[in-house]
Amino acid sequence: MAPIRNGRHLYLELPIGLPVPGKTTAYDNSRTIDLENVTLDGGILIKTLVFSIDPFIRGRMRAPNVNTHIPALQFGEPLSSYGVGKVLRSENSIFKPGDHVYGMIPCEEYIIARDTVRLTMIENKESLPWSVYVGVCGMPGQTAYYGWKEFSAAKEGEVAYVTAAAGPVGSTVVQLAKSDSCKVIASAGSDEKVAFVRSIGADVAFNYKTGDTNKTLEEEGPVNIYWDSVGGETLETALANSAVFGRFIECGMISQVSSVNTLYPIKNLWQVIAKQLKITGFICSSLHTKYSAEFYREIPRRVAEGEIKYLEDREYGLDKVGQALVDVLTGKNNGKKVIIVADD
Ligand SMILES: NC(=O)c1ccc[n+]([C@@H]2O[C@H](COP(=O)([O-])OP(=O)(O)OC[C@H]3O[C@@H](n4cnc5c(N)ncnc54)[C@H](OP(=O)(O)O)[C@@H]3O)[C@@H](O)[C@H]2O)c1
């Protein structure tokens, strides 16, 4: 078989504010790969089926000397994120051709993985679409599940306020909170998203761009559990409307991620003392060992049975990655943003 195209999406330049497709990132189709003869050196050859567009990709676009929980992207190298792929060839005893794997992968159509430590085999006994494994059954769903189980201490009838509630993290949290018999207030950035959030059980759902967050929380709160994906002014409003002994689960601060202006200064942190709040920031991977087995036992089954619902926003082809990331960072996605790279 003759060599074929191996398209990839590269990280080129540090963005100021939002990434600029074609400038800070760009699609490159100049490379080819000989699938039958390429050297594996003990590794596996993977055909990428799905590439996930997550907010954290923007967080990795930073000066290499700024340390966080995840390394900075390298200029000139492919972007990387979670993905699902199919093993085409293997020189590794754990994986065989035809297996499906999930994990952090480079943004390329075909990958030679020599280090397979972070790749997980997916059995998919429920025959779900592979894309679900980067959404509700992948890292975003795990974030919701692990964070809710570990930090919510939810009690029947308590009020949970969930932000970015139509996305894969937020919509899973809404449904877990309902399973725990909470009253759920949920906010999202369009009427379409609000309708979805209502359809999955939120008791109060509103468009924070056209509605009044403070008034809604005053009327429907106080808030016992705040799921924060947003930060900034919304966090300040949640603090003002929190219940005594409230729990704040700090999952993300997307309103601050691409900000080129001064970050929003929270002015009422004294509420933490006055209301005796517990505020916990967390990173999904830190809780993986504790919860992953029960997550995979429970969530794919509940998704397959239709008990947990999800919304997916698909694009086709790795050339769409740059714009797809901008869409997620500006709320133009309608559900979990996935890039379908190839058929199974
Ligand atoms: N701690 C962890 O381990 C972990 C893991 C995964 C994700 N996260 C965080 O969880 C959050 C949700 O992730 P996701 O994958 O589910 O993303 P997502 O909901 O698919 O996409 C991000 C959403 O954030 C909202 N948004 C964007 N800019 C905003 C702004 N300025 N103010 C308010 N909302 C804004 C938009 O929804 P609207 O249209 O509704 O505004 C956008 O659709 C993110 O903050 C992410 O960084 C954390």
UniProtKB/TrEMBL annotation:
User: Pfam families, alphabetically?
Assistant: ADH_N_2, ADH_zinc_N
> Which keywords appear in this protein's UniProt record, sorted alphabetically?
Oxidoreductase
Please report the stretch or stretches of sequence annotated as the Enoyl reductase (ER) domain. Answer: 25-339
Q: Where are the transmembrane segments?
A: none
The keyword Oxidoreductase appears for this protein? yes
Q: Which InterPro entries match?
A: ADH-like_C, ADH_N_2, ER, GroES-like_sf, MDR_fam, NAD(P)-bd_dom_sf
Q: Does the keyword Oxidoreductase apply?
A: yes
Give coiled-coil spans as residue ranges: none
Instruction: List the molecular function annotations (GO) for this entry.
Output: oxidoreductase activity, acting on the CH-CH group of donors, NAD or NADP as acceptor
The molecule here is called Enoyl reductase (ER) domain-containing protein
Q: What lineage is on file? A: Eukaryota, Fungi, Dikarya, Basidiomycota, Agaricomycotina
